[in-house]
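Table S5 (text form). Sequence records supplied for joint modeling of the two-component complex.
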Amino acid sequence: MLPNSRASGKVKRPIENNKTLSVTLNPGSTLNVLYYLSGKYPNEEVEGNNLKCDTKIYIFPLKKITKTQKSFYSNVHTLFIRSQEILNINILTAHENTFYRNSFNTALQGIALDYSRIIEDYVKELGKLEQSNPEKYKAEYEVTTEIFAIWELCRILFMAPASRKGKFSSSLVYWVNKFFPPLELSQEEITKIEDSFEPQMEPAFTSQLIKLVLRGDVRAQNMLNLCRTGDETSITDHTIKLIIQLMNNKPQVRDHEELDFNLKWGDWRAECSKLHDELNLVDQDLQKILAEVLMILEGDDHIIIQNSLTWAGALGSLLLHHYPTIDLYELRNVLDLCLLHKPPKDPQDTEQAFIKFLHLKINEGLLHCYQNDLWLTSHLSDLLYKFRQNMIPEQSSALSSLSLDWIIGYREFRLLEYGEILAGHPTLWSIAFDYLRYCPTFGHNYIQELVIKVPLDNEFKINKILDICKVNDLREEAQYICKIAANKYLREKRWTSSLSYLVRANDALQIKLIAHQFLNDVIETGELKFEDTINSLPVHEISDVSLNFLMQYCEFHHMLKQENYDMAKHLLITLIRSQESPRKFWPVLLLNALPILRNGGTIEGKPIFSKEDIFDILCILEEITSTRRKQEFDKCIQSLMQWHTREQGYDEIDEKLKVIRLELAKDSAKAFIAKK
Amino acid sequence: MAVQTFDTAHEDLIHDVAYDFYGKRLVTCSSDQRLKVWEHNSKTNSWETVDSWRVLWAVFDAHDCSILKVAWAHPEFGQVIASCSFDRSVRIWEEQDHEPKNSGRRFILRARIPDALKSVQDIEFAPDTLHLKLAACAADGVVRIYEFLNVNNLEEYSCMEEFEINPGTITKEVDGHYCISWCPSRFPPSMMVVGCGKEAKIFRQDGQGKWQAYEILSGHEDTVHDVSWAPTMGRSYQLIATASKDQHVRIYKITSDRTGYHAELLCSFGDHNVEVWRVEWNVTGTILSSSGDDGKVRLWKASYSGEWKCMSVLSHDRQTENMEM
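The corresponding structure-token record, covering 1001 residues in total, follows.
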């Protein structure tokens, strides 16, 4: 029946546009989406179809892992493994003891710091690349800088060792200054100020000085020095000198115990206040500027916030000048104050993440991190989980508000996603499985599904994949992969590799088929083409019965060559009796007996083959030559007759293989005569 | 990010494109009666043809014959492709490594299966745990499941099972639209979802081994154009997506307990605002893609709280919008 004819008349669909967009996802990698214009209905079903069509395929990369990212992901992978090993030790030892928990925490803090260093190196590398090729690296550089900022903030808030309050505050100040640096003046503006007779009159001078004082930047002192007249007796110069001295003598919280620091700091602030009260300069403009500087040094909230550009800048300055010993919980109040007066304008996810983390809303912070970068979310939630798991309940901690159940689930959710992306990458695929292995709920299922999707490009890669299967106890998947590898090499006619994988796949049936194919070659040509293949296989792989048969057959011919007819005889009988010998190979085995019968010599009074051997040989011969089996063996014997000829150095044979009976009879007769 | 494109050089509309198991090869089919196989060259990051050939009804016959769907078998069974056509046949092709690429002989026809009474609209190979089986649904309203008993000789096949999608109903070919998707789970029972007209049904084998319709995925107001069953990945439930003429993408959750299987509509999205023609899950069943007459591809993903949202929109004119999760 021809394709277009139908029993009843067919009505074609009138259709203006037979095109739509179709999509398919790359099964080997979540990273690519393929789409194309496709026909909704076959041409045979439509009329009025627009035949002009786009026949292109479009492949959109959902995520591209750059060369620099690849290197970064590889570097941090070892830290992930190390942190997991530490966790495993902790679980195994299951110490409730505070000492062990603290040791574990110390180890994790070290890892958090190592992560930080690697991220920082990555940022620096991108910074250099961005300068030479901004178009290519700008976006990645910006995102990575944000990652670094978030990571460092979380390290300060949640992963740092318990320490004096002042350390916490000064760490935050450092963080603000690093990631929210004040805008720098242009060189032109700097030159103008430096060259001016009255620098304080320059428009940019005051704002820049205030910015630097707010941030505790020592360059503020240089700017103040520019305002000196040079006359050491003048009140202006004396006042500026005192201010600079105050700045230099400001007590540092890291240098003192808390009580001691509070006393010293109180005294120092009093000195700032006194100087402020006594301020009396001729130059009123300069007086105003110096008064503002002193108010900042005194820690005046209002002046500090008023002069800060952003909530983060205000926060850092307040911590530096007013709250040097703040703790995590007081921080929220100060933060709220900053956000109230300097609310963020259209905050992006990174800024939202900062605010959430500072409010100790870790889960909300992590959700914002996800919009930024998957690596960040997955690794941050992993490390936070480890810290949270090890949290000593009696001790108050920033992690107290983080639900352990939530972080366990969220960590795995993101790690699975991260692992899946890596699994589809041509070079990062192997580290994916390390991540998935540490996802207790679904990790094993993901490994099962994704490991078989890794393309079997070469033997090295195949063995690597099989190692992963072994580590994860995936026997079925390993066998499946071996089968596919075997098929691949079979098509390439790489017999040794193919058989090797078939043995590992436990595919006895396929091995048998190949073995029979080899034996067919012997029937067709008389040559042992498979000899090199068998000899190349590792000894332990010859345990398969079909391969064992082939090996023994090669060994038999080897014995014949060495004229070791006695051993050859025993081996031949084993082969004849073997269940692995295909029936159509029997004529070959029987013909293989001829050289033994001719050259084997006669043991005094005995034929070369025993009567049991002769019986088996004759039974098989009868089977082969009987008329009822003619069809089964005819083709084989015809093939043998092509090459088993006198010209080739063999006996001439006929369809009845009479030469075998003749030689057996001769052998028996000789033995009889010898006995007589 | 830059979109990679290459021209298939088909002379008419493409009807289907299928990746192989590893995503390293593609096969395309068209109304120009040709099948084309492509391979990814990782060194040049380009797609190169492996072979291209025309499917003929018979060597001496020149009838036109659009090829509607293509599918790759699991690599365990070799490099095997199935194609189905308006000519009511399903064909099985196998790669011959000894033939040169682009010779037109690289893939040879191993089997031509002409059982269907009307055009074959969809085909899909079964999960490899069921060995080499292929399901084909035709406009005659019948799903046929073929098994290839000897992987080394694909000419030997048999139609193991055959069942009517809507028993007792006569469907007009113009209106009848069918699509199938196997449940990829390696655990029994074998299941598939069949889109049939305005419904989608889940079929399973009963105690006697007969395929029967069980749960109906309800809520569709017009033809179901496509169905896709997500990989399970250890979840305690199954997910099935449908694309419909009623402009909606739907996701159904299938659960099971002692009383049996239950299907519930998890979410429904009308974002395309036009007919939706395709849905497909990614390898882990965590991202769903959909596409339709608006010339847009939408990607859907569940947040940690389990809420499904559109995470990205790709336009045919290459604009991309990334949504918030």
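Note: Chain B is about 0% helix and 50% strand.
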